[in-house]
Structure prediction request, 479 residues.
Amino acid sequence: MWRKSLFIALILVGILGAAVIPAAAQSGIVWNAEYYNNAILQGPPTVARQDSAVSFNWGSGSPASGVNADNFSARWGTDPFFQAGTYRFWVLGDDKIRVYVDFGFQAIIDTFANPAVGQIVSADVTLTQGVHHIQVDYQEAAGDAYVYVTWANLATNPTGPNFPPIGNNPLPISSGPWTAQYYANATLSGTPTLIQTETSPSRDWGSGSPVASIPADNWSARWTSVQTLSAGTYQINVAADDGVRVTIDGVTYISEFHGATGQTYRANVTLGAGQHSFLIEFYEASGVAFLNYTFGPAASTSPTLVPTPNCVGCATATVTGAFRLNVRNAPSAINTQVLTKINRNETYAIVGRNARGTWYQINVNGIVGWVNARYVTANNATNVPVTDGSSTTTCSGAPTPRLVVGRTGRVLPGLPNNIRQQPSATSTRLGQIPPGGIFTVLSAPTCASGYYWWQVNYNGIIGYTPEGANGEYFLEPAS
Prediction:
């Protein structure tokens, strides 16, 4: 009998011993996963399975057979054991993520309202010893899809999440949590009207204000945070309308506390391993208000810097059609490198254009690159030179080109459009695009035989097709 009792006791000890493995290591955790063919976690899941981690990069693909590549959602739940302590949760995703602890009504991390694509967002939670329920909700809209979630006990002095780089981009730095203080004046004086925890200082208030008790103009804000970093050289990037200051460990690296229209400021800082205190101060004078802050490893090689010209009366481009706009190393959205990003309402000098005027070459605080003309409003750009080497030759009788490289076009009702091997009416015909057929534009037009010829891809057939003749269009933009 005693042998049986001892055997049972040993089994219980083994079970209990396994049960108290802390969740900090996150080994052996099983997530119950549900994937939905809609973006709102609605109805029965299309796929239900168990995942060993919330750590996926599906790219432009699908998470499972039968699940959409775009416009899908997912939910993961698990119940790990935690030792008592304060834990930092990190997420990284494209597009939106929520994290709940213990069935809380309010998520500890929520990027559904303020998407933070490609940014690591974090939050700290104090937990008692025992089992706690963790739920992760995810939403994918379009394009690439990835989601990573992890956590660590702050008692272990973690340096950050062990997420992989996304594509060729380095791992971003955690953007929170931050303590935000908002003042109903432009001088950060007196008692804050509002104090709250936020995942990032980056905000776009437009012509409004943070809350109803703060005026739309003449207000200020202060954010503080303690970040645990590895030793290295980091770059601060901040754009603001109006004034901004960035201080790390008591040293002010960016001090631009004046009226502005969205200029971007940069500074490099070398920091040792461990915790560092961050302070960001901002004030709004009038008009629109926004703050865009990023912090990450400094590039190993810096872009070639060109002096910013004096832009009194010169050509300028103001971002009006996008919240954030890519600045590329060539006038195309295909197979080009993003040099930097600029924000809505920012204005930069135009230093060149392509022949069709569909891309502008601009100077972003010394970084020269290309932006799509449809997303900016150009001023004084009549005499901007062509700087991409493209031809300004016009085709007599052919209508002005209006397709855009990297986007889609459509054949107008009437006759089909021939696809030829070369931009010539006598070249070998490879196929036809029927009326209403959608194709992708691959390269800028070539003038030949009295037509503007575009290189296109129609259902895998790659060749050249004419846009129109004698003032009549055969094609139209589809996107």
Notes: The first strand starts at residue 31 and ends at 36. Residues 2-19 form the longest helix (18 residues). The chain has a mean pLDDT of 81. The chain has four domains: 17-156, 178-297, 316-379, 408-477.
